[in-house]
Amino acid sequence: xxxxxxxxxxxxxxxxxxxxxxxxxxxxxxxxxxxxxxxxxxxxxxxxxxxxxxxxxxxxxxxxxxxxxxxxxxxxxxxxxxxxxxxxxxxxxxxxxxxxxxxxxxxxxxxxxxxxxxxxxxxxxxxxxxxxxxxxxxxxxxxxxxxxxxxxxxxxxxxxxxxxxxxxxxxxxxxxxxxxxxxxxxxxxxxxxxxxxxxxxxxxxxxxxxxxxxxxxxxxxxxxxxxxxxxxxxxxxxxxxxxxxxxxxxxxxxxxxxxxxxxxxxxxxxxxxxxxxxxxxxxxxxxxxxx
Length: 291
Fold this sequence. Notes:
This protein is an all-alpha fold. It is 79% helix and 0% strand.
């Protein structure tokens, strides 16, 4: 009952402010500023993926319904936050570096096979166009274009490294630059050793990724069990949650919900691999970084 009165009073005050603002004459500048703000909000809303916009809408509507039917005012904030943030925090973390390194490994194997037939590194890169993994299709296409425009292999590979912007890719492309500078001397052996090193790196990354995923699986299970227990408990024994209907109880629920979300965010950051420093940096970029 207290929650319904609070929501009704809030809506009444908001309606009064809206009526007063609407009765005031608006200047042309105010109209333009309001239009710009509305346009920024619209662009920010449309910049979200469709699934996230759907979750936000469902969260806001669910929060309003929970507040109206239970009188639990913090649901206006907690329910949208949970619906919007929980799926992002509990899903399996993306592994872009692992996917990139897998693509690099496949590409190096193709190059090693081509160089083994007597081709130069430039010709081997050109002939690998049809066998490039999807993750590297764009960067390799740009690399081949630069080689066709008479770029040196070293400069073309350096530009590719800047496009990918990854420490793991830098290690692979630096080896390719050395292979290009040395010509055919030991190129096949160098690429074979590079492929073996990539396999070892991939094996280590997969093991690390599996270990990092274990705490997330446990947290996901505990979260689902907790939410189900709370819903069932509220339906079966609503009197148990009566203390949370008081102002202090509602404030305590907001604090507990915020702390739980903060702990999930911290866990997500721990599970996210840290980016390493790149090694293929142009001289001008290095001077800017030192400055």
